[in-house]
Amino acid sequence: MTDTVINSTSNVLYIDLTNETSKLVQRPDLFDRYIGGTGVATQLLDEGFREDKDALDTEAPIVFSIGPFSGIYPCCTKAVAMFRSPLTGELGESYAGGRIATAMRFAGYDSIVITGKAKRPVYLSLHDGNITFKDATSIWGLSSTVDVGKILRDAEPYSGRRSIIRIGPAGEKGVKYANVNVDTYRHFGRLGLGAVFGSKNLKAIVLSGNEELQVVDKKDYNKQYKQLYHKVVNTDLMEKYHDLGTTINVNVLNEINALPTRNFQQTYFEYAENISGENLGDNYLIRKLSCAGCPIGCIHVAMLKTLFSNSHDVEVSDIPYDYELVYALGTNLGLKEPEDVLELIDTCERQGVDIISMGVILAWATEMSMKEKISTDETMGVTLKWGDLNNFLRAVDLITKSPNEFYSALAEGVAVASEKYGGQDFAMHLGRLEVPGYHTGLGNVVGLTAGVRHSHHDNAGYSADQKAFKSDLSDEEIIDQLIAEDDVRGVLNSLVICLFARKVYTPDVIVDALKPLGIEKSEEELDRIGTEIFMKKYELKQKFGFNLDNVKLPKRFFETASTNGIIDKERVENALEIYKNKRGF
């Protein structure tokens, strides 16, 4: 099947898995209004949404989008996925790097909308306008995303410019926080896109293209590109991401009592130095990789050697790591040995699960086990305790397989598990999404609660807290920062820019960089668009049944000291009222 690609920045490819059909439609109305990326994807999801259908319904759409900067400027390497989340029941929004954004750009697709359910396991092969629905029966049921990637690399053409995205066993089994692996080292994570793929019998997508990039003013484009490249490479704006990467935060957060440890019972990990970015970089790092179109090299890859016999037979694994993974499967589980953390990361990668969610779920289950609130009959003989790698490895495997009611509950997320078995006071989720690795203060809690994705750094609440720690910010000033950051990121995520480069792409820089592409926007217009995109996403969340007043805050947030001391619950509730009033909710 072939759809003629028009060199445009408004091409939407619609794919129907049920009938194995596709059509290409130009939607300049969407891209004029919302720029691209998250703004356009939100509108396309809204158009395909039906209130009587849940996240795993056959007709529930998956939307992928890129923006006008994708594949054009440095660090504009990500694509956005929009879907209804099977984990939260609300808006699912996720970003991934690798090659997917440039592959979509060169294929001529600004958005891809996938609906329906294949009659058998399939993968989509999209090359140069040719769309093929290929039988994936032979790769369905494989034990690892790594194996799937190897097979598809051999089976599909255009090595070096294609993108291969695929699910693992967790997605096939419907684990509600299953992720989608993108080009081995990147992921559409957090909100369960892998489970949506699995529900559609969609194992993978392989995508490439050979279109020419066209700009309106080549001379100005060359000037803008060189200026941006200089900022990215020759200044310190992105230096930390290349050097130690985000794992530099392990020691930094530990020093300011913000590092969640043993299910947020502490904010200081006595073995932090062992699994710090410094130690990993000195003793385990083997290379740094970049997403296509990025010169930074922020993907830090470690090597882990594992003996599998007494004859020095060794299996070698390359394992990507970053701060959130080290928090989720390291400090939050009391694992102190780098090899143990890396092995657990590798196991989760192969299963295809979101590692933040898995770490929080294992931490809750461990605390429940140690408090004897669940039995070894329920855990099938797995005795969970802090720092016990072998039982964590067994638990991950059992969660994916879901052989009994307890592990089936864990596969649905910590919110469901705690509703069934208790321990809601220390089930660390907001809006049913497991929380990331910061405990800095009021800004973080309010930001995670009110943010579009919950439990996600949409508005950098942790940053506001760190500023408040150094200078006495009022609660209203913190809320103002959260709102401003939400709106700015709406624009950045519509262009689509990797947020590591957010200090490079300031509003004035964005205005200038749009001009050679034939797009005229003022800073004031960008501000308005950012606010409109945020409100559009919140409106869609409300259609999915969301109400900010119904979000429950775990007591543990208010029991464990943060960077700014014990967080007062009443103060958080008052700050949420300020937020709602300023937003007009």
Write structural notes for this entry.
- With 585 residues, the protein is α+β, with helices and mostly antiparallel strands.
- It folds into three domains: 5-213, Aldehyde ferredoxin oxidoreductase, N-terminal domain (Aldehyde Ferredoxin Oxidoreductase,  A, domain 1, 4-Layer Sandwich), CATH 3.60.9; 246-399, Orthogonal Bundle (Aldehyde Ferredoxin Oxidoreductase Protein, subunit A, domain 2); 440-502 and 522-583, no CATH class.
- It is built from 22 helices and 17 strands.
- It has helices at 28-34, 37-48, 100-107, 145-155, 169-173, 193-199, 218-234, 239-242, 249-255, 277-283, 323-329, 338-351, 355-370, 389-401, 405-410, 414-421, 442-450, 461-470, 475-495, 507-514, 523-543, 569-583, and strands at 11-16, 21-26, 62-65, 79-84, 91-96, 111-115, 122-127, 130-135, 163-166, 180-182, 186-188, 202-208, 285-289, 299-307, 314-321, 429-430, 433-434.
- Strands 2-1-6-3-4-5 form a six-stranded mixed beta sheet, sandwiched between helices. A six-stranded mixed beta sheet has the order 8-7-12-9-10-11.
- Strand 10 and strand 11 form a beta hairpin.
- Helix 1 packs across helix 2 (37-48) and helix 12 (338-351) packs parallel to helix 14 (389-401).
- The N and C termini lie far apart (47 Å).
- Residues 2-7 have low confidence and may be disordered.
- GO terms for molecular function: 4 iron, 4 sulfur cluster binding; aldehyde ferredoxin oxidoreductase activity; electron transfer activity; metal ion binding.
- Keywords: 4Fe-4S, Iron, Iron-sulfur, Metal-binding, Oxidoreductase.
- It comes from Methanohalobium evestigatum (strain ATCC BAA-1072 / DSM 3721 / NBRC 107634 / OCM 161 / Z-7303).
